[in-house]
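Lab notebook: predicted structure, single chain.

Context: the supervisor wants predicted structures on file for every construct in the current expression panel, including those that have not yet been purified. This is the next one on the list. No modifications to the sequence; it matches the entry in the shared construct table.
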Amino acid sequence: QVQLVESGAGLVQPGGSLRLSCAASGIAISNYVMGWYRQAPGNQRELVAYITNSGVTNYIDSVKGRFTIARDNAKNTVWLQMNSLKPDDTAVYSCTARKFGKSLYWGQGTQVTVSS
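Prediction complete. Output recorded below exactly as produced.
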């Protein structure tokens, strides 16, 4: 059974930082592109960042320079370091394992709230 379990979310003030973790079981993440999606109320889900098997990263423009995605294949874990958080970053964040341009496995999602 494949599981992606996110942790590290919560409430933070604007300008603060959070680090999300995604621990995978049932799959070897070394075989997947790993990504983080987010969805805010009333908005479409968007792929915030992804990291390829070889470590190449990609970010949406709104988080470039503030978010960093990283992976450790030996630990079967992916992280999303989020700095200089803004209220617009408030959303449910979900970890995903992707192949051939599609998300094959999902975490349950975790709420990030940026508010004073």
